Structure formats: structure tokens, C-alpha cells
């Protein structure tokens, strides 16, 4: 399942950022909060996402579910929560649980789908 590394990494990073932003915007909307404060909520998770990408060296295997996906997901949640706490944003247990589950579905889910698509393509080739 070889991909051209640069376009694949850019695509994967874009998908990750869009999904983390979607998570934040959905959460804010579900609490009837406007999008103005979204950046305050978003930055800790984007920082965690970036740290996850660096830690996993995700640009090497951006569609990998096991190493890249799990590392990026864990770092996004853990670093995001630590930064939220450090910046006084609050880290209630319910929010941690919802964040962990939703970001797992988002960040691991798309990679699982990508793996299936890539496998099917490689079988046809």
C-alpha cells in the first residue's frame, strides 16, 4: 500500500484538522454556543494533533491505523486535555469521555476506511 508520501501526508493532515475542527464546532453548537469561541476550544486539540503527528512521524505512514492513527488520537486527546486544564478551560469527566470517543471515531475511523479502500485498490491492480 505505497502512497506518494507528500500528497498523502497533506491529505491526511487536512482530514485530521477538519475532523478535529468539526468535533469542536459540533460540541459548541450542541451547547448553544456560538462559533466565536471555537478557537479557544480548538487550539489545545490542534496542538495535541500536531504533537501526535510529530511523535508518530505520521508523514511516513499517514493512513496507518495502528501506529499513526492510535498515536495521533491519543496525543490529540491527552495533550488537548492537559492544555485545556492548564489554560483554565475545564476538564470535566463527561467531556473527557465524549472527546475520547468522538475523536476515536473521527481520527481512527477515517483511517480504517482508507485502509479498506487502499486494500481493494491494491487487489484490483
Description:
There is one protein chain. With 125 residues, the chain is mainly alpha-helical. It has one domain (5-124). It contains four helices and no strands. The chain has helices at 5-30, 38-56, 65-86, 93-124. Helix 1 packs antiparallel against helix 2 (38-56), helix 1 packs antiparallel against helix 4 and helix 2 (38-56) crosses helix 3. The chain is elongated, with a radius of gyration of 15 Å. 24% of the residues are buried. The model has no long low-confidence stretch (mean pLDDT 92).
Rg, Å, rounded: 15 Å
Strand percentage: under 5%
Described by strand count, sense and barrel closure, the largest sheet is: none
Q: Count the helices. How many?
A: 4
Task: Name the helicity range.
Answer: over 70%
- Give, in order, the helices and strands: HHHH
Poorly predicted tracts of residues: none
Look at the structure and give the mean pLDDT: 92
Number of strands: 0
Sequence-ordered SSE layout with sheet pairings:
Layout: H1 5-30, H2 38-56, H3 65-86, H4 93-124
Summary tags:
4 helices, 125 residues, elongated, mainly alpha
Briefly characterize the structure.
The protein is mostly helical and 125 residues long.
Amino acid at each position: 500500500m505505497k502512497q506518494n508520501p507528500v500528497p498523502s501526508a497533506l491529505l491526511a493532515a487536512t482530514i485530521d484538522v477538519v475532523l478535529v475542527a468539526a468535533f469542536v464546532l459540533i460540541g459548541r453548537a450542541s451547547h448553544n454556543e456560538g462559533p466565536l469561541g471555537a478557537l479557544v476550544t480548538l487550539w489545545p486539540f490542534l496542538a495535541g494533533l500536531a504533537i501526535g503527528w510529530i511523535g508518530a512521524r505520521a508523514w511516513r505512514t499517514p493512513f496507518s491505523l495502528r501506529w499513526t492513527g492510535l498515536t495521533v488520537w491519543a496525543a490529540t486527546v491527552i495533550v488537548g486535555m492537559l492544555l485545556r486544564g492548564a489554560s483554565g478551560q475545564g476538564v470535566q469527566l463527561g467531556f473527557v469521555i465524549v472527546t475520547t470517543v468522538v475523536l476515536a471515531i473521527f481520527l481512527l475511523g477515517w483511517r480504517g476506511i482508507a485502509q479498506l479502500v487502499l486494500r481493494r485498490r491494491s487487489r484490483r491492480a
